[in-house]
Amino acid sequence: MLRFTSGFRLRLALGGVLLLAGTATSLTQPMIAQRILNRLVRDQGINGLLLALAGAVVLGTVVSAGGYFMVESVGESLVRRVRGLLVARILVLRTAVVDEAKPGDLVSRLVADTTLLRQVTTQAVVTSIIAVIALLGSLILMGLIDYVLLAVTLTAVLVIGVSVRWAATGIGRATGKAQEAVGLMAALLDRDLAAFRTVKAAGAEKHELGLLTDAADTAWRRGLRVAGWQAASGACASLMMQTSFLAVLGVGGARVASGRLPIADLIAYLLYMFFLTQPVTTLSGAWGQLKAGGAAVERIQAVLELAVEPIALEPPRTGGRQGDAPYRVRHPAEERPEGRGAAAVAFQQVVFMYRPGLPAVLKDVTFTVPAGGLTAVVGPSGAGKTSLFALLERFYDASSGRVLVDGRDVRDWPLTELRRSIGYVEQEAAVLAGTLRENLTLGLAGVGDDQVREVIGLARLGDVVEALPGGLDGWIGHRGGTLSGGQRQRIAIGRALLRRPRLLLLDEATSALDATNEAALRDTLTAAAAATTVVVIAHRLSTVIDAHQIVVLEAGGVRAVGTHDELLRSDQTYRELATTQFLAAGAPEVLERAR
Ligand SMILES: Nc1ncnc2c1ncn2[C@@H]1O[C@H](COP(=O)(O)OP(=O)(O)OP(=O)(O)O)[C@@H](O)[C@H]1O
């Protein structure tokens, strides 16, 4: 926790000092009031004292408010820093890590655990520092009065310390588990929202509700356990304070009776014991809170330790008002590149498994893609086609062998530069909640209207712009739920083309397009292939027929490479694929050629 407070410690300390000063100023008020009363009784002037009392009231309030604000603002700054660190980390997590993560749980760590952390810093840390000072001060003054009574009090404080420590461990453990349950709830809700229509269509609302309420119940039960530990710790502290009070009374009384202690000293000592109750109660509560914060820190730390890609992503230091618009791009990534030509690709004896222990999905894959032109990759479902793209984008590293882009191993490319050279259109094309323009210019800065309009033409997005209320700046819902599969993919193609990639990877949609759009997109791909290298995982006959080279993949291995006509003649698998599995693009002559 201390690590996260670096840079804020001075402000935190200053806030603590102000709070302390505010309390001290407030403590002078009864003394001034007492004097005012005394002077009134003696019929003396009180103007000066009234002024002093008013001054003490105002000063105490202002100083306390300043201290409170400072401490709270440190809490907010701390949350901002930790959230910045977390998102900067989450955004560059390795794909394999995210494959296994629960997104909802990550969100819960970002939201709920950081909030808990804030409460702990502002409430627990500062109040306990003040309480420790008050505790030590009182104990010293009590020792000056009578060290025998101090020994009795210290025994009680020690017992309280031990029991509070024991309870705090329980609080920390129970809080960690409660936060875990909250994370599970978030993960479950995320899974339902991600597959919202599927849940509805399957009539699984009741089932999912059961799971969610189970998770909520678990969080509630664990929350109760936290409350139980807190109550036990508070009860222990209070019991010991009362016992020690009685013990001091007994021992003190005996010492007064034997003449070893003046009665006035015993009364003063007992008054100090009253003072002591406050810091002891505060500290016993704060210890538990610190442990709870520790549990939150552990969950945050666990995310910060996940494996990340070699991309330097620092949370920006500046704040600044951005208005109410969500998803405003505050730190635009980069300028749109100029035309950059085409990149050659080579796979050399590539073996790849997603995780150690899993079977290899690519087995000794070797083929080359020349710079420029259209290469189609075809093969049965599960052959490993998408995995080839994942290696090119370096979402994963090959287990052995080499993947080259422009003759350079992808592992030797700076990752951002590699990805900047590649445009990737997934089959289940991702559309982000935001405007159409934001979706197209994602990660690019300074893209002019004319350039956006150009890709709208190229990707055949005219109908989407027209139908969308607000046009180019119209809002596209969560995961593009308001769009058809084909429209989503055309947006993704537009996004990829806008980046002017040296290599365009396209996992063709399996859904059929109408004949006009089919032909138009074919033209777009042909035009793109003239300027850059295009590799398409092809599901359409029209695409393979147009391809300069076709790579046939089967069960993780390259079966054949050639043109459509060559492969029709020479390769049985290809012939079967071409005649049975490809989506034929309406035109009879295409079908005829396939036969
Ligand atoms: N993230 C992953 N973790 C583990 N295994 C995976 C992962 N993604 C894919 N696989 C497995 O790798 C194999 C190849 O998958 P891949 O998606 O590359 O096939 P594909 O040829 O693109 O299939 P399709 O045409 O159905 O999209 C499959 O057996 C799949 O189950």
From TrEMBL:
- Identify one Pfam family in the record: ABC_tran
**Membrane topology term:** Multi-pass membrane protein
Segments forming domain ABC transporter:
345-580
Cross-referenced SUPFAM superfamilies: ABC transporter transmembrane region, P-loop containing nucleoside triphosphate hydrolases
Annotated localization: Cell inner membrane
Q: Which domain of life is it from?
A: Bacteria
Q: Which molecular function GO terms apply here?
A: ABC-type oligopeptide transporter activity; ATP binding; ATP hydrolysis activity
Q: What is its main location?
A: membrane
Q: Which residues form the ABC transmembrane type-1 domain?
A: 13-292
GO cellular component annotations, sorted alphabetically? plasma membrane
Q: Which UniProt keywords apply?
A: ATP-binding, Cell inner membrane, Cell membrane, Membrane, Nucleotide-binding, Transmembrane, Transmembrane helix, Transport
Question: SMART domains in the record, alphabetically?
Answer: AAA
**Transmembrane stretches, by residue range?**
50-71, 124-141, 147-168, 266-287
The Swiss-Prot or TrEMBL record describes its family as follows: Belongs to the ABC transporter superfamily. Siderophore-Fe(3+) uptake transporter (SIUT) (TC 3.A.1.21) family.
Q: What is this protein called?
A: ABC transporter ATP-binding protein
Phylogenetic lineage: Bacteria, Bacillati, Actinomycetota, Actinomycetes, Frankiales
